[in-house]
Specification:
alpha+beta; 4-stranded antiparallel β-sheet; 4 strands
Length: 257
């Protein structure tokens, strides 16, 4: 019994040196150079793999989106006439898509004629009498008229750059029409410039003197792409059309201000 009272419990860390606390820097054995090298190599390899993987995602993402949208568009357009061919027992992929393109072309030819324009005007008159539908139709028609090759009176005429909202800042817009302002000092020729503030549907209209308008060498479609993309398709150099015609080269915009 005396021997049992004299015995004392010994901590595991002291009784078994193999069970030493690995988090204690004093008790844990020092790491070998080979272990540090392996960790560094693993870190470099992991960083390289992650970087290349993200590069692949960045490259493949626009390709995948383009393929998906194109495939969806082909299937969507093909679905207009595919049921008709299915009823006839003709099963050829893409035939409905080709037929739809031919149909759109024929509609354009028909509307360009006097009879077609009359029929289109009557149909448009009925659409504009429908509640809610007339707003959607009007907004979509304005956008389509802006890029129409006919260049009618409602289309955007030119891309314009004006000083807005204050000195030193510029805004992209589109010249839509011109107006003659009659004043006591004399008549002044002004241009109506539409500056979109929400893509192409909502914007502000400014009456600007011709001298204060910069006409860049950009087409209407290029101007629309710049606005819709949020400026991501902006060219690195913009030159006024007058300078291009006079010099025959591209002059940076900041040299003309």
């Amino acid at each position: 019994m005396a021997d049992e009272k004299d015995t004392t419990s010994v901590p595991l860390s002291q009784g078994d040196p193999e069970r030493a606390d690995p988090e204690d820097p004093v008790k844990s054995p020092p790491s070998s150079p080979d272990s540090s090298t392996r960790k560094a190599c693993c870190f470099v390899l992991q960083s390289w793999v992650s970087k290349k993987f993200m590069t692949g995602c960045v490259v493949l993402f626009p390709v995948a989106v383009t393929f998906f949208v194109t495939w969806w568009f082909i299937q969507f357009v093909d679905g207009f006439f595919s049921p008709l061919y299915d009823q006839l027992g003709i099963d050829i992929f893409g035939l409905g898509f080709v037929t739809s393109l031919i149909f759109v072309f024929l509609v354009g030819v028909f509307v360009s004629s006097w009879l077609g324009s009359t029929v289109f005007w009557i149909g448009e008159w009925f659409i504009k009498r429908m509640p809610f539908v007339k707003h959607i139709y009007s907004a979509s028609k304005q956008v389509s008229a802006a890029i129409s090759p006919d260049q009618n009176t409602t289309a955007f005429k030119e891309v314009a750059i004006i000083r807005h909202p204050r000195v030193g800042e510029y805004a992209f817009g589109f010249i839509t029409s011109s107006v003659l302002l009659q004043r006591d000092e004399g008549d002044e020729q002004l241009y109506s410039v539409f500056v979109p503030t929400n893509h192409l549907y909502i914007g502000d209209i400014f009456l600007v003197n011709s001298k204060d308008i910069i006409r860049p060498n950009l087409s209407i479609r290029e101007g629309i792409e710049i606005i819709v993309s949020g400026g991501m398709t902006m060219p690195q150099t913009i030159s006024p059309m007058e300078s291009v015609a006079r010099v025959g080269g591209r002059i940076p915009l900041n040299r003309l201000m």
